[in-house]
């Protein structure tokens, strides 16, 4: 049994490329279709209903590309939309919150886990629910902190300048006071700021990258469901709901290599300017 | 002759409330309908085509509320969409770029004007075009600087802390080197950071608030076209494309008073979650 169709990966924009990077590095034999909803980015400042609506549209778009699996490579979309997408998707759905929560539970020695994420993710409380469900009797305490400025800092390329350090000091103070020994980078933008976050938290604090945790889950799923690509051919497709040139320009540091090239633009709400006029 | 219909005001989200505040303060006898496209905010990181498409939808929504005038209370939308909206709107359209450019030309003594704005506004070059068109023989030099981090700083409420100051120092260095004596706050979020921007630029540099400049244009237009509200009744309506409670919570500091209350949620792309399922 094999399934040579690509894995579909979506995000509100470019953050999910840090997840795609881990998938490509760890599961290089699988084809991928990436969709970034740059036309409506970010999701982390928006409300539950809006995030669910957008995620459903993103899923439908990836389904139209005949993917064998959907990866919600956006922690905000994962926190708000996973249940709905899992209910309506025709293919398996992998998200960010449970895999990274499990990694954090495995990693912590003192039982104190910090979650840093967007405002929408924190207010949804999904990480707390996930950690409680997965703790399996282990005594875990969670400290959550919304870090909304980390997203624009990552996009501006200010990953380790003085402003990034001061912002991280301000946001991470509560986690340090709480005494966490493990921090989930609960937004797919945050791996870009890992050095700064690590500097502030200190060398004894373990940082969990959701893309790594999710890649392990995807790998297991491919085996369990006998869905590996056995064609020997691997393709990489990129779609964005905003400008293609702009996407390719800002994508590079997130993906960590020369890709993407030949990105295509799509409209996810079925609207074109011509319809208006 | 009178026209008792409201003035329609739209923005990508909450920044335009700094414009609405000036309209309410300076033209208190006019009713207003405000639409914030919080479901797709911000526009300042997006491409020309996307900004035009969204602005047309915003205009159509306001037209459905039977407004007598449309105010594009978002500098990014003004810079990219004014010509298209002016072409297709059934009512007069007031935007931000030309009024604030005119104010800057009138204010400058040394002929050196700084423009600070979103990335999309700066790359569109509309301020440079507007100032050249309006200079009327006056010798004007323009220095533009994109300040993308000012938008999330304004929304995070970090208006005058150390991080805001460091960010402003970094962005405004080129304007200081250029020797500008006048700076256009070319994004409707930026009036919230006016104290910090003023501290960095120094007391001799004049800051231009687009909402003030646009209110003067609106006032003139109401007289010229005999469209003042003479009913004696004034209404304030607020609509958002994202969550109402959230809008009302984040709107207060931008609007500078207790309003809005009783905001209504609308969908501007005609899509509902139910359609998907």
Describe this entry's structure for a reader:
2 copies of one chain form a homodimer. By secondary structure, chain A is α/β, with parallel strands linked by helices. Helix content of chain A is 47%, strand content 16%. In chain A, the strands form 2 sheets. A 6-stranded parallel sheet of chain A has the order 4-3-1-2-9-10, with helices on both faces. The first copy, chain A, has a 4-stranded parallel sheet with strand order 6-5-7-8, with helices on both faces. In chain A, strand 7, helix 9 and strand 8 (206-209) form a beta-alpha-beta unit. In chain A, helix 4 (97-107) packs across helix 6 (126-134) and helix 4 crosses helix 10 (210-224). The longest helix of chain A has 17 residues, at 48-64. Chain A is globular, with a radius of gyration of 18 Å. Mean pLDDT of chain A is 93; it is low at 271-277. Chains A and B meet through helix 2, helix 7 and helix 8 of A and helix 2, helix 7 and helix 8 of B.
Low-confidence stretches of chain A: 271-277
Continuous helix count of chain A: 12
Coarse structural class of chain A: alpha/beta
Q: Largest interface, per-chain counts?
A: A-B, 40 and 40 residues
Most strands sheet of chain A:
6 strands, parallel
Radius of gyration of chain A: 18 Å
Strand content of chain A: 15-25%
> So what's the oligomer here?
homodimer
Largest beta sheet: strand ordering of chain A: 4-3-1-2-9-10
Rounded mean pLDDT score of chain A: 93
Give the N-to-C terminal Cα separation of chain A: 51 Å
């Amino acid at each position: 049994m094999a399934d040579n169709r690509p894995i579909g990966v979506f995000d509100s924009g470019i953050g999910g490329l840090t997840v795609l990077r881990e998938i490509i590095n760890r599961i290089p034999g699988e084809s991928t279709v990436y969709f970034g909803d740059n036309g409506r980015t970010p999701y982390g400042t928006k409300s539950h209903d809006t995030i669910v609506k957008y995620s459903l549209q993103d899923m439908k778009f990836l389904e139209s590309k005949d993917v064998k699996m959907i990866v919600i490579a956006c922690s905000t979309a994962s926190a708000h939309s996973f249940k709905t997408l899992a209910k309506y998707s025709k293919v398996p759905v992998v998200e960010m919150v449970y895999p990274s929560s499990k990694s954090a539970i495995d990693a912590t020695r003192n039982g104190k886990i910090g979650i840093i994420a967007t405002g929408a993710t924190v207010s949804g409380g999904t990480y707390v629910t996930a950690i409680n469900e997965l703790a399996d009797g282990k005594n875990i305490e969670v400290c959550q902190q919304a870090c909304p400025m980390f997203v624009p800092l990552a996009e501006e390329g200010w990953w380790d300048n003085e402003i990034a350090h001061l912002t991280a000091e301000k946001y991470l103070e509560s986690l340090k006071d709480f005494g966490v020994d493990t921090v989930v980078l609960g937004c797919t933008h945050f791996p870009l700021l890992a050095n700064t976050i690590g500097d502030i938290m200190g060398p004894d604090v373990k940082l969990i990258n959701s893309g790594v945790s999710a890649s392990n889950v995807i790998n297991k799923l491919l085996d369990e469901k006998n869905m590996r690509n056995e064609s020997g051919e691997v393709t990489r497709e990129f779609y964005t709901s905003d400008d293609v040139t702009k996407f390719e320009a800002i994508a590079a540091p997130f993906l960590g290599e020369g890709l993407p090239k030949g990105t295509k633009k799509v409209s996810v709400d079925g609207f074109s300017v011509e319809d208006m006029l």
